[in-house]
Structure prediction request, 371 residues.
Amino acid sequence: MTWHLETFEPLDAAGCTKVSDFLASQTRSRDAALRGAIMRWKLLDNEVRPGFVSAMVTDHDDRVVSLCTVTPKRLWCDGAVQPWAEIGDTFTDDAFQRKGMFSALVNASRSRAQDAGFGIVYGEPNTQSAPGYLNKLAFAIKDNAGLLNCSLPLSARSIVPRLGARLPAAVAARLLSAPAVALSRIASRALTWRPRRREVEVEPLVGGPGAISADFDRLWERVRAALPIAQVRDARYLAWRYRQHPLPFRIYTAREGGALRGWLVTMLATDPPPLSEHRLSIVDWLFAPDDAAGIGTALLDVAVREGVDGQADVVGAQTAIATPLPLPWRRYGFVRRPLPKPVIVHTSDAGRRFLERSEAWHYTLGDTDAF
Prediction:
């Protein structure tokens, strides 16, 4: 069987369907229709420009068997907006493993993005793909951008699996019974009660992309001066990222005296097996660093309450260890552990300069392909 490299340039709806059908065949976490909608959103309807897609396609039946995408984005760095892009969706069908497809596709997608002006190409690879990126494809780990996983268990369904072999099987089974899980939820509701800050009004944002109005731009313009490195989080980006996305994100706004002082994004979903936890993810947030105690606390309070009221088993988030915008995780006793997944950057000239920067980076799940 033979195959060829196809770059889908320019990417159109038919090409997007072709690659999303392949991804649906490789991952079982989402159905094909949803996978297709997400790929169209990310690559065709991208708020910067259409994405870059490279695939290996069989000659005899025109079937995608390996894939790599690069998603254009906007970076705030050195007091200005710069182009950068995230590499991902690196999948190869089992029958075509170890044939050099991964390296060829990563190089093709990455070089096309850089030729188009996206000099900084970053990613967050899993343990399977990271060695290939680092050892063969001229990517390097951004050492000063270590990541933390922050989690707050809310039920026995989250606590028991994490205890693992430390619990006898009979005890674990008893704790995972319906009555025990219900009791654990009641306990977590009591343990996570906190008085609300009445001077801060936190409400869910109602409406589509048009509800993200100019006051979100004004907040971004006020906050960005205190952020050495961050993805642009203006109204245009937020409307695309969280209102045009096929998945159901919830945006909370925090206001004082009617003025927008911060926002936070969540999503309630069920993790794929084997955990199958009902998870409230804190996806993204923004407020001025000197507002962390007031605005940050008020936003986290509402997110935890959503998790409790939504019968979540765990509230989770991802953040850079050295972030300029920390949420008050200690207020609820979030368990914070380093993530083994690194942030990697291609060592182009622009990428090398970015790797050398030591400033704090505001980096969340919203910066990744996780959703």
